[in-house]
Amino acid sequence: MKHRADRARRGIGGVSAALVGLLLAGCAPAAPQPAPAPVPPTPSAAAPAPEPTPEPSPEPQTPLALVVHASNPLLEVSEQAARAVLDQGADDWADLGLPAGPLTVVTSLPLVPGAESYADPGAALERVRQRPDVLAVVPADAVDPSVRVLTVGGRHPLADPVAYPLRTSGRPPESVARVTIVGDVMLGRRVGQRLARGNDPAAVFRPLADRLAAADLTVGTFEASLSDDGPPYQGGDSFSADPEVALPGLRSAGFDAVSLANNHVGDFGERALLQTFDLFDEAGIARFGAGRNVAEARAPRILEVNGQRIAFVGTESIEGVAAGENSPGVNRLSMPPRTGPVNLAERQATTRVIEEVSQQADVVIVMPHWGTQYTHRPEASQRDTAQAFAAAGADAVIGSHPHWVQGWDRIGDVTVVNSLGNFVFDMNQSAQVRQGVFVELTIWDGRVVAVDPVAYEIGDDFAPRLAGNAAREDILSDIAGTSTGPYARPTQ
Question: Domain boundary at 118, 134, 169, which?
């Protein structure tokens, strides 16, 4: 406004001077005045361009999962078969690659012709848990590890949600972490001798190395010492592995951490045990379940991947050297059949650790070394102890030691795998000691959404390889036969 007032004052002064000139001239004729110069038009401000209409935000999408009972041997279907179910419906398992048999499709979405429809995906999943002849089509964010989610066209909807081909509206995960856990790895005795002769530390891992290394974290129970610098406490059953062979082999398969909570890591005494700790530390492979004293043995190991903090706790219930206040050993949790009855003080010490670390980590995985050898049936004390772990804040319990696979349990939201079986071992007295599963856990934003068993057989070269269809069905059937809840073999 200041500049506009200045211009007005200058205009008033000019008019007054012209009047004074006319008065001084009297009646003299006025001199002709030049025509005023044309005033150029004042340019007007350009009109603002209209704001572009914003594009609507794309609707969030989540994978559309095909789900079957946990004991179902079906693992994968083609994308063509999956889309046929969505477009045309299905009433026979032969449509999906299994032997012919009646099939009922259920869904929580109005898109599958002829399917039983439920408003709540949880109700559709409950039908799957109850019956072996049901296939559910639900948003992937509704599933949990009590059911089996099928791979479609080579893509798993939970482990690989971005590339998975079938989509529906829903909230996708912000972070996905994949954790693979294997059973007992024993690289001594005949296994170690074979690896040394072949000068190939990776040989026993090679058939599955790519799959193991593809996980964000790969963990196993290392059941041997890395040193024989001491007397063999268990005679001929004392296990030691050459670190020049064992450590490169583990690294070749992508192992990030090992549980040392077992009854063989201390087979050659304290000095060898301390050397084993040092060797793993120098190799950059995290360890837990054993330590230089009881506090270190009980301490959790937290590993961060894809923004998620995953904690591991190991316990040993067989006959390993227990850590003391000032002596090395394992995190002992005494219980049947070898060190029982259940030592409640030891169990409470571990559950306190679980409670504390559950406040620091997104997921807590407990790996107990427990149970009776050479049986598929878990001890009652295993189920009781798993309940204590779950109540303390564990998100999964993955056991080892029995040398055979054992049944699975579901305690609240916690999956309990009582025994994975041997992974690398030189046992050959039965088919069962050469069979096992490793598990692939998928974690969405701090929630375990899948615990998938992957069946294998150990060959004469001590290397595990994926089981063929018949062997896989046998192994999964052995697990279902002693499982409880949603993992038990359905009777209908």
Answer: 169
